[in-house]
Amino acid sequence: MSARLRIGLIGAGAIGAFHARILAESADAELAAICDVDVTRGRDLAARFGGAAFSDAAAMFADLPLDGVIIASPETVHAEHARLAAAAGVPMLIEKPLAPDLAGIAEIRATAKAAGVPVMAGHVERFEIGAAQLKAAVAEGICGRVVTIAARRQFVAADTPRFKGLSTTLRILGVHDFDLVAWIHPVPVVEIYAAAGRGRIFEETGLDDHVMTTIRFADGAIGLVESGWTLPASYGVFATPASWSPAGNNRLDVFGSAGMVSNDMSLRGQQLIAIDEAAGFRAAGLRHQPVLNGRVTGALAEEVAAFLRLIRDGGEPIVGLDDAERAVRLTVAAEASLASGLPVRLDG
Ligand SMILES: NC(=O)c1ccc[n+]([C@@H]2O[C@H](COP(=O)([O-])OP(=O)(O)OC[C@H]3O[C@@H](n4cnc5c(N)ncnc54)[C@H](O)[C@@H]3O)[C@@H](O)[C@H]2O)c1
Question: What is the CATH architecture of 5-117?
Fold first, then answer.
């Protein structure tokens, strides 16, 4: 293994571009290759951050010795890319959701296990300080017996057309919170019921505008996961300050018999806002990939650092296949409920 870990990236899109920059800025890694079926996109990203550009993942693994790969392609092709990584013996960090369905998770698990290659799941919220501190507080018993856990994730719909025909609102947004809710309250889920509001976003992209999912746990606690694109564009589409990326309207609350814990990243709880006469109001997203002293920091950089440590030191991934499978199981059940209009029973 070289001094710097040689990492490949598959998928040079919205999140892949941040992974590329984080790898390029890391003292522990070298961005060795970028693969994207969109040749121009892959080449452009490689020109900015380094690495050889490929349009075919099999060719990338055949041509280059890699110490790890970040798979940031759409989830419909994650299993295919995981199979190639496993065959090449390359540890992988796979963006959420790991797969669109449980068959995809099983395929990733089988190929990785047969090759003895570690898989880390890119559930970025596990590396967000507020979510992690909330989890620790609940685990310490601050809330007493958990009664309600509610998660809201709402963004503007500016970038949703790229998911048309490829994904769903619950796979893009909901899966983050299904993972968080089940991680914070690790009790079997026995029932899920989801309902969607459909409007302009649905007409334009086929994605549900806003989905409300209720979750019933085996111990009687209830959860609510809210996933929507229903923030007005003026909230999160802005050009200045150029270094800011937009915030969402996100919130995670746990209420119990003895207390509550709340991680408020909502409209009224934004830490950094700006208002000027030219562009009005905007709020900065400081959690996932803010730039500090010229480098991307925050939860996504923490996630990549954890992946690099996993490659170098071994051990168990901070978020592994079992957690990724649980999140996908809840997502699939919520989608089945949306399709039928009925609650879906789970066996826990
Ligand atoms: N962790 C997060 O917060 C976060 C944020 C955004 C996206 N994601 C996840 O990351 C994945 C990608 O999302 P995105 O928003 O970057 O999408 P995107 O559409 O912006 O980028 C996907 C890229 O993959 C490329 N691609 C498609 N098929 C390919 C193939 N077979 N081989 C190589 N490249 C291929 C596309 O050309 C595109 O450039 C999704 O699973 C999404 O849910 C996670």
Answer: 3-Layer(aba) Sandwich (3.40)
What are the pLDDT digits (tens) for 151-208? Answer: 999 999 988 999 999 999 999 999 999 999 999 999 999 999 999 999 999 999 999 9
Under CATH, which number does the domain 126-292+328-345 receive?
3.30.360.10
CA distances from 168 to 3, 25, 195, 320 (A): 40, 32, 14, 23
List of residues 6+ apart from 113 with CB closer than 8 A: none
Domain range list for the chain: 5-117, 126-292+328-345
User: Cα(256) to centroid of ligand 1, in Å?
Assistant: 38
Q: Residue 219 is encoded by which pair of tokens?
A: 């111990």
Closest atom of ligand 1 relative to the 16 alpha carbon: 16
Q: How far apart are CA 307 and CA 120, in angstroms?
A: 7
**What is d(CA 58, CA 83) in angstroms, rounded to the nearest whole number?**
10
For residue 300, how far is its CA from the centre of ligand 1 (angstroms)?
15
Give the ligand 1 atom nearest the CA of 78: 41
Q: What is the pLDDT of residues 205-246, one digit of tens each?
A: 999 999 999 999 999 999 999 999 999 988 889 999 988 989
Residues 6+ apart with CB under 8 A from 220: none
* The pair of three-digit structure tokens given for residue 134, joined into one six-digit string: 């909330």
> Residue 72: what residue type?
A
Q: Which two tokens stand for residue 70?
A: 């970040």
Q: Report CA-CA distances (Å) from 42 to 9, 76, 92, 245, 300.
A: 10, 19, 19, 22, 20
Using one digit for the tens of pLDDT, what is the confidence trace for 248-271?
Answer: 999 999 999 999 999 999 988 889
Q: What's the CA-to-centroid distance between 304 and ligand 1, angstroms?
A: 16
What is the structure's pLDDT at 1?
52
According to DSSP, the β-strands at 92-95 and 68-71 are parallel
**3-state SS class at 117:** coil
- Dist CA 85 CA 117 (whole Å): 9
Q: Is 77 in the pocket of ligand 1 (CB under 6 A)?
A: yes
Q: Is 44 in the pocket of ligand 1 (CB under 6 A)?
A: no
Give the ligand 1 atom nearest the CA of 75. 41
d(CA 52, CA 61) in angstroms, rounded, equals 12
